[in-house]
Amino acid sequence: xxSEEVEVREVSPRYGYTADKPAVPAGYKQTEVGIIxxxxxxxxxxxxxxxxxxxHITARFVPQAYPLAxxxxxxxxxxxxxxxxxxxxxxxxxxxEGGRKPQHGDLILSRNATVGEVAQVAKWHPPFAMGQDVCLxxxxxxxxxxxxxxxxxxxxVILNQLANLMVGSTFKRANxxxxxxxxxxxxxxxxxxAIATALSDVDALLEELDRLIAKKHDIKQATMQQLLTxxxxxxxxxxxxxxxPLAHLAEIRSGGTPSTSTPGxxxxxxxxxxxxxxxxxRGQKHLTNTERTISPSGLQASSAETIPPNSVIMTxxxxxxxxxxxxxxxxxxxxxxxxxxxxxxxxxxxYLMTIQKSRxxxxxxxxxxx
Length: 370
Prior knowledge:
Blueprint: E1 28-31, E2 34-37, E3 41-44, H1 45-48, E4 49-53, E5 61-69, E6 85-87, H2 89-95, E7 107-110, E8 118-120, E9 129-130, E10 134-139, H3 146-153, H4 156-166, H5 176-180, E11 183-186, H6 189-228, H7 246-249, E12 250-254, E13 266-273, H8 275-279, E14 286-287, E15 292-294, H9 296-300, E16 311-317, E17 319-326, E18 331-332, E19 336-341, H10 346-354, H11 357-362
Parallel strand pairs: 5-9, 13-18, 14-17
Antiparallel strand pairs: 1-2, 3-11, 4-10, 5-6, 7-8, 7-10, 12-19, 13-15, 16-17, 16-19
């Protein structure tokens, strides 16, 4: 019997399940992807969808011919061929041999570097071929929903399996057989469509909210620019503004990194901020926790300085001008210049520095490492 036709009945230990299984409600069953309704199937992806790799030939790239979809083209819901490389008709015909011509309803999946990104092939797409680093997913029956499978690839069901697959790998890569062996839940056809429609409605709502947030963000930026440059004055304020060096408004402190080869310098409870901690805020203003901490001995043995609460910590290497206000005493690595207010309101200083980002970036002109 073909292994792909065997129903998945038992939980494989490789997905992290233990003997302490949750209670299975009536009408449900335990599978490798968790507890699902009894009338759902859970099996290898290759049982429901064919998975076909691109042909490994070196195509000749030319302008205005046939597009090649690779990793860059699968970063959104539908394949985006706007900036895709182009190849000749001869190489195009070679690349689509063996059922490799993308069709409406297919999915293109990235399998190198960025593994697991998936995009749909739509009716409006011109003829195109698959480039390196992607593969083609095609339903084996019309009872399988393209939109439903795309949602599965964006869910923990696949993301957890990908994470297990990539453990210990320095270069992220999945081969076709590994993709075929992903375990996916598969409801009846009508339920697949209903689930996909519900999730699509949520996506549409989120997109509308994103547009609204972007509009509000633009309004905020314009308001900040007007208020922080004095072009617009608040009611009751007429006194002339002054210009001063930043050092007159705040004490500027740097950061440092204790030796990573000395374990006693780390995990000592003193928050130690890196640019990653700032970008993880996603625009939020206050920073309370950091991914890593250092010890008092690590602080003393490095150039790091303690930054008191209600200071402005600002990135000044590689990522330039990203700011946050620390709510607790904190240290940073050397990729920061930190502003401890001495003659300015902390919140005002934070907003003031956020509109200086473009000026800060200009200071880096010509530098190979900003």
